[in-house]
Amino acid sequence: MKVACVGGGPAGLYLSILLKRQDPAHDITVYERNPEGSTYGWGVTYWRGMLDRFHEHDPESARALDQNSVRWSDGVAHVRDETTRHHGDQGFGIGRHRLLEILADRARSLGVRLEFEHEITPDSLPAGADLIVAADGVHSALRTRHADRFGTRLTAGRNRYIWLGTSKVFDAFTFSFVETDHGWIWAYGYGYGADRSTCVVECAPDTWTGLGLDRANEADGLALLEKLFARVLDGHPLIGRTVADGSSPWLTFRTLTNSAWHHGNLVLIGDAAHTTHYSIGAGTTLALEDAIALAGALGECADLPQALARYERERRAGLLPVQSAARYSARWYENLPRYIGLPPEQMFALLGQRHSPLLPHIPPRLYHRLDRAAGRLAALRRFKRWLGPRLARTVHARALASRE
Q: Which residues, in sequence order, are bridge partners of residue 133?
């Protein structure tokens, strides 16, 4: 099969690796419009489950990923002058540049052609390709050409946010909530290397304009944010990314959905197919899971339309709970005043429950009490399941001893 993958991000590169591992005879080319080594963004996150799937599908790239990632298992929340820390699942961070480097090297080693600085448009599609993969991101030109067939829909969020880097290395997934005269502003921080972390700052529109962030130049904006988050930055600077076209680096998140994911021999993958709010940290993982599902469908279905239909069914079904969680997570932050007055431990607990569809409809303090009661009941049930077999063995042993 001849495959043209348009876009050299994680989804496109990993798909090319999986297809080459399935059948080295596949003719696969990845086209990327930017020069090699140039990428946006700072670090990306993923979780233990994704690393396990990497080991299952391509152990070599999994080992490289594991060796180049940093780890954390705690979450820390700073609210005003108070701090609370919770232990949780193991998370991983890796620089986006390093992730792409690992995947590109692995793809080349398998015989995939990588063509950088080669932009593909709807009018210049590679000739003779059996399959064209649109992995060209949320602004996908290939999807836009057939937007009516894909049923593309974009929904804008309310809050403003900005992606930044910092030389402060966070030892846990860190949240910082700061109250200003114009409302609350907050940051999410996580390490992704020995000397770097990602820091995403978010606030409501009125806070953004009230603080003057809508009018500040890059240097002044960073200086203000460094002052606001001085407590967690420990004197380290924030690092911006100058936007080439001069537009504001502050964004509103846009949730993208499509009612169809394939048209003819063109298939969508990663951000070209869907986006989920950054607050659940799943964007890269979902893109890689798309690649796994598409490669699996192509490997098991000889008929291309059947394979693409199977891929679409599987991933759309898998995304439903994640997209729901992302919507509720975004709304939690948009309704932050509802929760920020709670004691920090309760607020952090509900931050962890922000994906719940019930939370917006139950008073926060009542929800917290109900959640704790449910947790104690679940713990009691686990203890009983653990204790039952041990009691049975003890009774059985005593019965045998009495017979002797």
A: 5, 267
